[in-house]
Predict the 3D structure of the following.
Amino acid sequence: MIAIQIPAWQAQPDVWLVVAALVAGYWITIVRVGPRLVSPVQPIVTRLQVISFSLGVLATWVAGDWPVHIVAEQMNYSVHMVQHLIFAMVAAPLLLLGTPAWMLRWILGAPSRRFAVVRSLARFVPALLIFNLVFILTHWPAVVNAGLESGLIHFTLHAILFVSSLVVWLPVLSPLPEIPRLAPPTRMLYLFAQSVLPVVPASFLAYGTTPLYRFYVDKPHLWGLSTLEDQQVAGLIMKIVAGVLLWLLITVIFFRWAGEDQKSSQQMNRKRELNRSLSNNQANRDVPAINAQGAL
């Protein structure tokens, strides 16, 4: 077996430009636009939002730069799958969590046609269809082969995946009341559907008997994998890793919902007990008054 090594470091100026644009745009918007749109008594941005956005930028950088990008583009389709999952399921939700409501409203230009389109797409059925159509498109053999042979097509596919992922996460993480999050039970159902539908294309990859991506046939693969084995690993990553991430989020939503429901029930019980106590006190005060009137 021939030992295959990761290619030497290669500059990725397009990725650096995207990362720099995200950081600069975020900072400039906070400094220049935030004070005009946010009340002086409210924070322009919270520490949690800054941390979330920073982690989203970091995830974008890791997925798009050396060595992940080079291995994904020149050697292993399984790493290409990891790259797509980082863009869609790590970077996109973190960036959305890091975006204040006023900033997203300003970016979408509310009220505008762009805002109306995003709001109509960020619903259960449209968002579900967008996620699966884009995911299938960006992993369709002919599309993948074309993207790997053309830098422009490859960048365009990543941009489509990235932007559509932001829309898909809005029903779960939207900071805008105008584009409300789904209710917890519906949110869990939405994520469950997102975890089930990709199983079909993942199965074609994981249980396929011939390589589907001709671009990788003659390429060297890390870890001694054949082209078919690498494709099967990619299918398992799509099926298992994506499913685990979504189910972890479903679990978090469930326990938060259960905790809030329990807290609400406790508050209602305390309120009823308080009302009952007040009623009893009032009744006790009324009894002496009635007795006094009877004595007169």
Observations:
- The first helix runs from residue 13 to 37.
- The chain has one domain: 13-295.
- Residues 13-295 form one domain.
- The mean pLDDT is 88.
